[in-house]
Structure formats: structure tokens, C-alpha cells
């Protein structure tokens, strides 16, 4: 394990923006991870695939990149497949692997960027399915005691793009592995978006291919246009607020969310005619308004100013305050759009 000083993080993030870490290490084993956590630093940041964060400034502390790999399989007599997956495994490649083994269930979550260890943090979801639907447990390393504890799904406090790992355990725990349970017989989930046209006899592989095709059509390839996928969360509002907006926009897409209603953030942004709007080298994607892209020369400041413009414009028109799904990392740790703009 080598400690690198003043190391450029651009190759490790999908936005492709220059930012430097005072110290940087890559860990491939639990032993290396524990050693890395003992390195003196004013603050630490755990980095997986770098697909859901924006470095707003150079980072004054230690960045630890998790590259733990390995998958263990246990097939029980009751037609349940249990998978123990190391945190550094690429998420999409893992989904591909499960289907190749005949373990169906994760196909709706295909082509989501990042690594397995980051999936529980955001409780990633797509096309009517969320990680929590298949999570059996999450193994977590305490950064102080350096001991591993296994968290049940209930203890993970999964919610819409949220979990205990973004709250109580933030900065004091590192996910090292995730357990999954995939049941047989498999039941297709095709009641969302373009999947509804596939028919009830669609196979998991057919769903997987359709999800990949749809995401490729809607979302730009970060290898060609730097981006972090969906920049904003789909807002959840109460019915009274929804009724006010729907009265003026009766065809507005919306979805049930308990006793509240979820709106499509991309639709709200699109209605503000922001597709293609540019701030420096940062641009609202011309095909998908929910995505901010780096056209090649964007700085973190460009992306921040564009995000603020989107937030203000949507708030002014719809009285809906968008929250960014992308994590903002400042010089001294995690921050948010409002704080960065104030600072």
C-alpha cells in the first residue's frame, strides 16, 4: 500500500474534474484498509467508483479508495441464493454476473455506475426496484475500533436514496461487503416506464437489455461526457402542493410515495427550458435534463453555478426545492450546494 501525496483525483471520478487529495491510498484487502485508517490525517474520505460525487475543491485530508473484490455464493435448499459481495466489485459487472449464473432479480438495476459498497449508501434504485428489496445484510468496519459489524436491512434504515450510512454512520464506518438474497421462482418487475411494454413473459435477460438500452439512450456515457448520472433527486411533496401544480400541468408525471407524491425532477427542469443551458464548461444535457455534463473543460465551480441556477429556476416556477443526489465534497469534507454557494 503506497501513500501518494497531492494526488489528482480526476481519474477516479466520473465528472472528470481536476481536484487534488493531500494524501491518497488504494486498498485491496481488509488488512490494508485497517492500516489506511490508522494514517494520521485531518479528515478521511472513502472513495468507491467516484460516480456520485463532485469534488468542489482540493481535499485537505486522506482519500482511501476501496478496491476490495470477491463474490461468495450459497444456494440453499429453499431456492434462495445468498451472495456475499465485496465492496469494491463494479456494480454493473456484478449484475451481469448474476444473470450469467442464472440468479435473476437485479436486472432492473443494470448499468447503474459505481461499486457494490456504495449501493446501500444511496439505496440505489431504478425502474421500480431498489437495493433494499434484495439486501440481506451490510458488513461495516468501524473506523475507530477496526471491528466489523453486520447490519440487518432494518438497521440500515433504507429510504428513498437514503440510509443510515448517510446519517448516523457517516464518516465513522466503512462498508466492506454486502449480502444479497435472490429468490426462486423469479418474478419480473415490469410495471415501470418502458418495461411495461415487454409483456408478462419477459425474461430477466430481456429486462436487463431493455434497461441498458433505455439508460444508454437517456444518460450520456461518462467516458465521453463526464457526468454523475441523475444530479437531483426526484422530489417528494404533499398532496396539497401537488394539486396546485397539477392544476396547471395536468399531464405532469407523478408517482405514489406513501401518503405523498413523487415528481420527476427531470420533467420539472425540462419545463423550465433548461436543456442545453450552459455555465462555462458545464451543461444541462441536451437529451436528459436531470443530468449535468462536463463538456470537456468544466471546473467544479462551473458545475456548482449551473446546479444553483437549476435549483433557483425550478423553485421560482414550481415552488419545489430540488435536492442534489450527487455528493458534494469540499476541502474539509462533505458539504452541500447551499453551503458551497454561501462560502
Can you tag this structure with a few keywords?
343 residues; alpha+beta; Uridine Diphospho-n-acetylenolpyruvylglucosamine Reductase, domain 2; Uridine Diphospho-n-acetylenolpyruvylglucosamine Reductase, domain 3; 3 domains; five-stranded antiparallel beta sheet
Question: How would you characterize this protein structure?
Answer:
- The protein folds into three domains: 4-66, 2-Layer Sandwich (Uridine Diphospho-n-acetylenolpyruvylglucosamine Reductase, domain 2), CATH 3.30.43; 71-215, 2-Layer Sandwich (Uridine Diphospho-n-acetylenolpyruvylglucosamine Reductase, domain 3); 223-342, UDP-N-acetylenolpyruvoylglucosamine reductase, C-terminal domain (Uridine Diphospho-n-acetylenolpyruvylglucosamine Reductase, domain 1), CATH 3.90.78.10.
- A hairpin with a 2-residue loop joins strand 15 (254-257) and strand 16 (260-263).
- It is 24% helix and 29% strand.
- It has helices at 30-36, 91-100, 119-122, 153-156, 204-218, 239-248, 265-271, 300-318, 337-342, and strands at 4-8, 20-27, 44-47, 53-55, 59-66, 71-75, 80-86, 125-126, 129-130, 135-142, 148-151, 173-183, 226-230, 236-237, 254-257, 260-263, 278-279, 282-284, 291-294, 327-330, 333-335.
**If classified by CATH, what would the architecture of the largest domain be?**
2-Layer Sandwich
The CATH top-level class label of the largest domain: Alpha Beta
- Largest sheet, described in full? 5 strands, antiparallel
What is the helix/strand order?
Answer: EEHEEEEEHHEEEEHEHEEHEEHEEEHEEH
Helix content: 10-25%
CATH topology of the largest domain: Uridine Diphospho-n-acetylenolpyruvylglucosamine Reductase, domain 3
Spatial order of the strands forming the largest sheet: 6-7-12-10-11
Q: What is the overall pLDDT average? A: 95
Rg for CA atoms: 20 Å
Number of strands: 21
**SS summary, helix count:** 9
Overall morphology: globular
Unreliable segments of 5+ consecutive residues:
none
Strand fraction: 25-35%
Structural class per helix/strand content? Answer: alpha+beta
User: What count of domains describes the coordinates?
Assistant: 3
Distance between the termini: 36 Å
